[in-house]
Design brief:
With about 180 residues, the protein is an alpha+beta fold. It has helices spanning about 35-40, 45-50, 60-70, 120-135, 150-155, and strands spanning about 5, 15, 20-25, 75-80, 90-95, 100-110, 140-145, 160, 170-175. The chain has a single domain (about 5-175), classed as Gcn5-related N-acetyltransferase (GNAT) (Aminopeptidase), CATH 3.40.630.30.
C-alpha cells in the first residue's frame, strides 16, 4: 500500500511505498529532457525491450520530443523522482487516441531497482485520476505478451483484456 504525503518544507507531493521508500511525484516537464534520456539509458536491456517492444540503447531526439510533448490535458505524464539521488525512477503517461477524443493510450516505465514495490501501480492510480479529471472514459494499454509484471499491474488495476494478437496484448479500463 502506498501513502501520499507532503514533506515539510517541500511543495512536491511524495509517495511512501510499502517498503518505506519515498519518491517525489510531479508532472513531467520539458526541463526533464536530459533526465528522461539518462533514466532510459540506465534501464536494463530487458526493461527497455519490454517498454518499447524493440531492442533500444537510448532514445532518439524525435522519441524524446514525443515523450516530452505534454500539455497536461490530452497528453499527460507523471514523473517519480528519488529524492536521495535526484534521478527519475518512473514515469506514466497517456496520449489521447486519434479519432477517439474520450479514450487515451497509457504507458508506464519503472526503473529496474524500483520494480515490484508498488510504484507503477501508485502512479497508474494518479494517472487514472488525471484522466477522469480530463473527462476521459477509456484507458487503453498495449503490452508485450511476455511482460507479466505490466500485465499483472494492469489486471490488478481493473484493466480487462481487449484483443491483441501475436506479441502484443491489448487491455482496457472503462472509467465510470
Amino acid at each position: 500500500m502506498t501513502k501520499a504525503i507532503v514533506i515539510a518544507g517541500s511543495d512536491t507531493p511524495c509517495l511512501t511505498l510499502h517498503d518505506g521508500r519515498v519518491v517525489e511525484v510531479r508532472p513531467l516537464e520539458p526541463r526533464d529532457r536530459a533526465g528522461v534520456a539518462a533514466a532510459v539509458s540506465r534501464l536494463s536491456d530487458e526493461t527497455r525491450y519490454l517498454r518499447f517492444a524493440t531492442p533500444k540503447r537510448e532514445l532518439t531526439e524525435r522519441e524524446l520530443d514525443f515523450l516530452l510533448d505534454v500539455d497536461h490535458h490530452s497528453r499527460e505524464a507523471i514523473l517519480a523522482v528519488d529524492p536521495s539521488t535526484g534521478y527519475g525512477v518512473a514515469v506514466v503517461r497517456y496520449v489521447e487516441v486519434s479519432g477517439e477524443p474520450r479514450a487515451v493510450e497509457i504507458a508506464a516505465t519503472v526503473a529496474d531497482d524500483w520494480q515490484g514495490r508498488g510504484l507503477g501501480r501508485a502512479l497508474l492510480e494518479q494517472l487514472t485520476s488525471r484522466a477522469r479529471e480530463e473527462r476521459y472514459s477509456t484507458l487503453r494499454a498495449s503490452v508485450l505478451a511476455t511482460n507479466r509484471r505490466s500485465i499483472n499491474m494492469l489486471r490488478r488495476a481493473g484493466f480487462a483484456p481487449h484483443g491483441g494478437s501475436g506479441i502484443l496484448r491489448e487491455y482496457e479500463l472503462a472509467l465510470g
